[in-house]
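quick one
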Amino acid sequence: MQKWIEGTVVDQKRWTETLFTLCVKAEVAGFEAGQFAKLALAVEGEMVARPYSFVNAPKERPHEFYYVTLPEGPLTQRLCKLETGDTIYLAPRPAGFLVLSEVPDGPDLWLISTGTGVGPFLSILKTETPWQRFEHVVLVHAVRHAEELTYRDIMGRLLREHSGQMRLACFVSREKAPGTLHGRIPAAIEDGRLEAAAGVELSAKTSHVMICGNPEMVTDTTEVLKRRAMRKHRRREPGHITVENYW
Ligand code: NAP
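structure w/ NAP:
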């Protein structure tokens, strides 16, 4: 099998000093919303590759990837310098289990993210599936600074299209920002602020929670949910929590 597919950069958006969206034209195999592709560049004769979630829905083109540059990152420091027309390599087959086909039915779906972890949830929300399957869909996006609350146009459009059904709760932890919750997700679950903001109950009886982002947030949020009798979902042992660590 061919190891890498050649793609072409068709756009690069810079949101902040460190947050970027790369748009790529490439013939990779089909994927389910929530999955990731492996992006690669040749660095000193060797391929350096990392997984990045699709932000585009499976039917949308070009492919879109939301990433944060790392100060010493061998790949991200090169990704952010790519321009329209440049070549980038992709693994032929997308992968990953942060997908709705792995999620059992239940009234409400919670999508909890930090930083660039919101990307796969945007892909999911741009498909029909969550709107057909769930009564309420709550998107949670937590960032350090207000300027990192990206993709607000898409979130606004989704809120308009699914008013009543979709709820959005944004956190900004390191400054006060109007219209957002302050602090961290696990604490706001414990003291009831997140449910109050969403207007939706978060419980083992009513909710399935998908979590994506900072691994410590994933761990701490999972712990708080376990105290509400929620447990990790497994195919053989259905539960309430599906997670993806982002680094
Ligand atoms: P971040 O540190 O992940 O923070 C994003 C949000 O998560 C902040 O509101 C933060 O709150 C919160 N948070 C952090 N730890 C938490 C926990 N244990 N429980 C609940 N919430 C928690 O910030 P970022 O800007 O997205 O990423 C920062 C660094 O992470 C980057 O510079 C990079 O080094 C690394 N990163 C790596 C990758 C990768 O390798 N693919 C991807 C993304 C980020 P506080 O402000 O209170 O900490």
